[in-house]
Design a protein that fits this description.
By secondary structure, this protein is α+β, with helices and mostly antiparallel strands. It has helices spanning about 1-80, 85, 95-110, 195-205, 285-290, 290-335, 345-360, 375-380, 385-400, 425-440, 470-485, and strands at about 115-120, 125-130, 155-160, 170-180, 185-195, 215-220, 225, 255-260, 265-275, 280-285, 365-370, 405-410, 415-420, 445, 450-455, 455-465, 495. The strands form four sheets. A five-stranded antiparallel sheet has the order 2-1-5-4-3. It starts with a helix and ends with a strand.
Length: about 500
Amino acid sequence: MQAQASALQIRLSQRPLYVAGVLVLTLTLMAAWPVADFLQERQRILADAARMAVQKSQLMGRSFSDTFLVTDYVLRDVLGRVNLAQDLVYPHPDASVPARLDALLKEKIATVPGLNDLVLLNANCTFVAVAVYPFRGTQSRQKFCTESRVPPGQSLRIQYMPQDKSVSKRAVVLMSRLVGSPEGQLVGAAMAVIDLEYAQQWIAVLEVDENDVLTIVDTDGILLARNPLQPQFLGLRASLPAGGPSFAEVGEANSFVFESPIDGRERVFGMSRLERVPFVSIVGLDKKRVLAAWQRRAWQFSAGFLVLALCCVVALRAHLATVRQAEAMRVLATTDALTGIANRRHLIDIGNQTFMAALHHGHVFSVLMLDIDKFKSINDRWGHPTGDRVIQIMAQLITASLRPQDTGGRLGGEEFAVILPATDVSTAFALAEQLRQSVQAAQVLHNDGTSAVPFTTSIGVATLLPSDGSFNALLQRADRALYRAKHQGRNCSVLAEWV
């Protein structure tokens, strides 16, 4: 019984840990599902934003490429009206030929908005005819002019020309349709000059949300136009995430999340290659704005869950306080304040329960009644503090002698009792003698720390008889055996009568 009580106390002391663990597990499970759903929703939102960015980039690209497609038709038409072998001579011996060519170019440039100039070049890349700027006789600096071979027939070349290399001293995009001989030699070319200012004006009229960005780059990554405008970055090379495709490898639909090196904002980018021209349109959607509604819901959920968790913690604290108060009341009601073992009330309750169980199952049942010999003399000689110390040592010795199923307690004063379930008379008497001998061998030091206070105990042993109608009757027989032990000289164990 004493061991069961100790086990109960251990379980009660561990109960707050169990309750807290269950609470933490419950809150974790409650949070896990919505958190997983929030994370999945976040991925869906980013995926939708990526698709939207790609679609916008495709629409923007198709719109921007229209100018280049129309310009290419103009270049084809110009080449179709020129005798390359006879007309593209510089200087031309017939002054009417350059005049006719200039007039043709002036007529065609008026048909395409955004063109700065139209130029005809001969096999030496020399300007033979121009529509606007008086640069006839100027040598072109385009890449194909230094190539040893060009594709036979007609081919299209588009090149960004920075301000320092441009003949007009303006940053431009040069769109040239070359004509190559069957041997791969340049025969002549028609070239359109598109000022980057036109691209910037075109992209500037497109609607863009706050912190979003629209850009046009060439396949070398040169930034040609940007909305919102940041002119200090135009003409510089843009960057892409490491491990991704280069601008030259961009297909119809590419997306990624990237922190812009220009303004440091993280965006969801969609980009696509323009049809038949070496440009890439890019749309960047501000990631923070894209996730703003999701973040608001996440914060609302977090705040609500935090309030719930705090309420649970408050409820847990209140519950644990109640448990501690109940445990404290139980201890006060069942434990002797001086010794810490069972008090009289608790001992009688356990005795009654054990008595009824023994009767029901037909088990043997024994009790010990014992007290400290000449305890009054100890108090008188050594003082009450020493007497209390003797009582505490006695309780410790009783507790040390108990088996797991036994219960020991203090009846009051210097009197104690031990309940021995399923114990016959011989075993009970042997246990009584072991306890008596351990008491006789024990010593208690006086408060001065040097004087030993010897003490002994007398024990009455009683085993359940059919005539015992209650636990109290059994206890009274043990008490009478204790009384006889006193009269037999003390410091001995005596068996109760068997009738």
